[in-house]
Amino acid sequence: MESKEKKIVWITSGLLSQFSSTWKMLRKAIESVPDEYWYGTAHDWSYSRTVYHIIETQKFYIRHTPEGMKWGKLLKELNTDDKPPEEVYPPKVILIDFLEKTEIEVTNYIKELTFEKLLEKDDFKWFGSVFEKLLYLLRHNQHHIGELARMLREWDCERVKWT
Asked: Which DSSP helix (H) or strand (E) runs through 94?
């Protein structure tokens, strides 16, 4: 039987590989959208808002508790109701930097997990374990990246390739 140390390396390497793929796709989605569409909307959800949401949510789920999260740190305006996206959400260059910093934080969070910590239940009561929370976060990222890809397709822009 393999040791717990080998198992955690195998599991965390797999998680990091999958997160890395979502980050590449997200970065491509940011780079591919023409500037005139960056603040574009499809129904009530803007492109820039979706990108911001994906990144900020990653910061939320690598915490040990949902309590105390300060949402909207990079927003120009915290009251987003009835405001156009360009008055609320940052430009591409700021969100690429936000993504890069978040990648490092998520990577460090995952690398620091032990086998026991991965199986523990933290204060996110709606998940059975930290492992389940990370799987949820991967699904969350990919769901919203799919929305961005769809918007690019509808606007006849360069598509995001699956990585």
From this structure: helix 92-111
Q: What whole-number distance in Å separates Cα of residue 83 and Cα of residue 39?
A: 12
> Which CATH number does the domain housing residue 132 bear?
1.20.120.450
pLDDT in tens, 91-142: 999 999 999 999 999 999 999 999 999 999 999 999 999 999 999 999 999 9
d(CA 124, CA 133): 8
* Count of domains observed in the chain: 1
Domain that holds residue 40: 4-154
Using CA atoms, how far apart are residues 132 and 134, in angstroms rounded to an integer? 5
Is 161 part of a structural domain of the chain?
no
How far is residue 103's CA from residue 83's CA, in Å, rounded to a whole number? 29
* Paired tokens of 23: 């980050």
